[in-house]
Amino acid sequence: MKANRRTKLRRIILGSGEQRGLLSRAVLFVLTVSICFVFLYPLFTMLSMGLKDGKDLNNPLVNWFPTKLFTGNFERAWVVMGGFNTIVSSTFMFLLISVAQTFASMFIAYGFTKFQFPGKKLCFALMVATFIIPDHVTFMPRYLLFKEYGMLRTYLPFLLPAATGSGIRGAIFILIFRQFFSMAPKALDEAAMVDGAGYLRMFFTINLPLVIPAIVVVFVFSFVWHWNETYLADLYFGNAINTMPLLLERFTDNYTKIFPPQTTNPQAALNEGIRMAATFLTILPLLLAYVLVERKLIASLDRAGITGE
Description:
By secondary structure, the protein is mainly alpha-helical.
């Protein structure tokens, strides 16, 4: 009897087989809460400080929740960040670039997977090697090239490399698509060729439905990485094109121009709450995009085998 009780107690605490015990569940719960805290803490901090007025920011007793909701920080940050015009222009530009990079990477991977041509292995090795070289190492030759052809201060320095599969992180996107195309059964392509289907028809009717999860992954990652790229954007765009991340970098200078320090309203003075509000507005489009594609993205990541960067 005692041995049976000990066995049952041990199963309850440690678990047995595929069933988790109380100890493993507790450890998993603690790890999940800790990871969520690490990711959500910056967001809560930005939102909390952005809703505080000057008195709450200087009051050490006010921590997470302000004594009253103050939207003035977001209103001034919204004005300095350019409002809807900047959000719409930035979102449209990076969406166009991401779509171009997604389809270019898909077609390049399809060629590497389905076709045989001289120098294929060498070309593939060189393509993979570009992933090792940081973009900041090759920016000077590209800058001189774009300057020679008069492409600076336009979208083209980002759009053309993306449309040719050589944009930001282009190599890893090609590898993702190649993995999916390699998993497609060859018998389907052979049967389609027997029926008289060409390569384009085989691509759109057989292979394209199989890589939809990869399309979601590549598009989201491309959009996020292009959105967060400020060094090359500042170099190529200058002051001709404003994006949300670029305006965040120039936030202090732009704020002092719009709201001079000699203003009589003390609430208009630049403080940490206004900076946090501007930062939250910058990442807000990314959060909304994640909410829209969250279910599809998680399912696609599981199928693509991506666990992190």
